Amino acid sequence: MKKIEAFIRPEKLEDIKAVLKSQNLNGLSISQIMGCGNQKGWKEYVRGSEVDVNFLPKIKIELVVETNQVEAIIEKIALAAKTGEVGDGKIFISDITDALRIRTNERGVDAIK
Fold first, then answer.
1. How many whole angstroms from its chain centre is CA 109?
2. Among 33, 25, 39, which residue's Cα sits nearest to residue 7?
3. Does an H or E element contain 93, and which?
4. 100 secondary structure, DSSP code
5. Which residues form the domain of 26?
6. Which pLDDT tens digit goes with each residue over 65-99?
7. Domain total for the chain?
8. Whose CA is closest to 30, among 3, 5, 55?
9. Can you give the pTM of this predicted structure?
10. Residue 19 belongs to a domain with what CATH number?
């Protein structure tokens, strides 16, 4: 099993949700976050002083999938999230050693289906 974490532009969320729904995935978490990277942010004036606003609003999507699904899913997320501009986001993939569905005590892949 693998965990996919995608950091995307907020305006791309609906496109990515549609792509993931078409893959019949069973679990998805979405968080509103702030972050910075190459996009750098912008400058604002507060009480007459210039202030750098480095943290921009982003959406973090987290899902755990079977290992054989990872490449197809990250390809679809990347395609839906891409604008070609700085700030499109990043996708991270990490190993999950086990999972447990609390209600039924199912473990491993059965817990994420």
1. 21
2. 33
3. strand 89-95
4. B
5. 2-112
6. 999 999 999 999 999 999 999 889 999 999 999 99
7. 1
8. 5
9. 0.84
10. 3.30.70.120
